[in-house]
Design a protein that fits this description.
binds nicotinamide-adenine-dinucleotide; 9-stranded mixed sheet; Rossmann fold; single chain
């Protein structure tokens, strides 16, 4: 309790920003001119918690949006009523009733262990499925999600916002235009400070082995693996990970900090660091070094990308420069909202135009494979190859990787004076 109180005081700034975000979300009233929108995908939100707020905010003030949130379902009646009222959504106490309504698609914003189950129910009801990351805790569930959505003939995408963040799209474009040559070295960080109560309370699903599929490595690592596979146009060949608990969280909770070293199949080496206990507002940073230059990115900067390149189109040579026309960006919470808008709009446009989403379910499954590979390496205490994980998946499945992980977590909290 004392620990919690100290954190509340120390991190007042972060809390204030979160409260601000929640405040603007609830004070906003959706107004829609129905006649203006001929082609629009009607969405039902499933799970009206924190992520739902980013998605609602993302579509605020968008002119001619390709989608509209019209309905909602949450197991918690109070949350459902409050959220539906605030955003003029039709509330459904039962999932089956929502799925029988005239919505076209669902946005699944639930604890990770429910992603596969609810995707199946929605697909079988003929609804297109957009589901938050990570796809699911095991590769078997990922396969099931791919199979059921294909069989039902519905569009399916995992909402991986890092694939739709303008700063990341900007970097991808620079890489494709050969601004820094062949990338051989990467380091990337995400710090998304979370209320210690989330870790200390065994009843909150976040970061649990059984409902969350693991700690911060599963939760934030999902973003990083999806990002790096895409930027490098490659997949992970091997990994070695360290996971640490800096909070004395109960045994059903995973790590709150992790470092993962990766080797990609084409040879690049990378380091991923993720934390939920580092004390600052959420941000990501990525450094990419190639045979002709470097790119560094930090989501705390208004102009989030800096480039060192001798490319003929480089704006400055011999120094790092921020582009004169930077990608659309703003430090937390703005970049969350921008990326939620982009991913939701992209998915809706795919539904309207019968196109396959840019971020495929197979890409999302590969990110889950990397999470599981990192955990397997923690258990083995050594570098582990993706081929070994894939073999294991075929022979016995991947569920057992999460069993008994707690024993292998480095317990660091006794040395720390929070
Ligand atoms: N992209 C991002 O940056 C980002 C940020 C936050 C969360 N997320 C993802 O969004 C998803 C939801 O996370 P969250 O933080 O919003 O969680 P949350 O706990 O805040 O919200 C989940 C909601 O689901 C409801 N719920 C739980 N079980 C249910 C059930 N069986 N049926 C119906 N409703 C149920 C809960 O009552 C709660 O309101 C997760 O996949 C998470 O990883 C992504």
């Amino acid at each position: 309790m004392v620990l919690l109180q100290l954190n509340y005081l120390k991190n007042g700034l972060i809390k204030n920003q979160l409260l601000y975000l929640i405040g603007i979300c609830y004070s906003y009233n959706f107004t829609f001119d129905e006649e203006k929108f001929m082609d629009i995908v009607k969405f039902g939100i499933i799970g009206c918690g924190m992520a739902a707020r980013f998605h609602i905010l993302g579509m605020r003030n968008v002119s001619n949006p390709p989608l509209k949130f019209v309905a909602a379902h949450d197991i918690n009646e109070k949350i459902l009523t409050r959220f539906s009222k605030a955003h003029k959504l039709t509330p459904y106490n039962k999932l089956e009733d929502l799925l029988q309504s005239d919505i076209d698609a669902v946005l699944i914003l639930l604890p990770h262990y429910l992603h596969a189950r609810v995707t199946k129910a929605a697909a079988e009801a003929g609804k297109h499925v957009l589901c938050e990351k990570p796809m699911a805790p095991t590769l078997e569930e990922c396969d099931e999600m791919i199979t059921v959505t294909k069989k039902a003939g519905v569009e399916f995408m995992i909402a991986e916002n890092h694939r739709f963040l303008p700063a990341h799209l900007y970097i991808k474009d620079l890489l494709e235009r050969d601004f820094i040559g062949d990338v051989f070295l990467i380091n990337t960080y995400e710090g998304a400070y979370d209320d210690p109560e989330h870790f200390l309370n065994p009843d909150i699903w976040h970061f649990t082995y059984d409902k969350g599929g693991g700690g911060v490595l599963a939760d934030q690592g999902a973003h990083k693996f999806a990002l790096l596979n895409w930027l490098l146009d490659d997949t992970v060949e091997s990994a070695q990970a360290w996971c640490a608990k800096t909070l004395n969280s109960p045994p059903n909770k995973g790590e709150d900090n992790a470092i993962i070293f990766l080797r990609f199949r084409k040879g690049a080496i990378a380091e991923i660091t993720v934390s939920t206990s580092a004390i600052h507002t959420p941000y990501n940073s990525t450094e990419l070094h190639g045979t002709k230059g470097s790119i560094i990115e930090n989501h705390q900067w208004e102009n989030p990308v800096k480039i060192f390149s001798s490319h003929k189109e480089a704006e400055t040579k011999g120094f790092f420069y921020g582009p004169k026309e930077p990608p659309e960006h703003g430090p937390f919470p703005k970049y969350y909202i921008i990326s939620a808008r982009n991913e939701d709009s992209h998915f809706a446009e795919c539904v309207l135009n019968n196109k396959k989403p840019e971020f495929t379910p197979e890409n999302a499954k590969e990110a889950v494979a990397s999470i599981l590979l990192a955990y397997l390496s923690v258990k083995k205490g050594t570098m582990t190859k993706m081929d070994e994980l894939k073999k294991m998946a075929k022979m016995e499945g991947t569920k057992s990787i999460l069993n008994g992980l707690e024993e292998f977590m480095q317990k660091n909290y006794e040395n720390l004076n929070w």
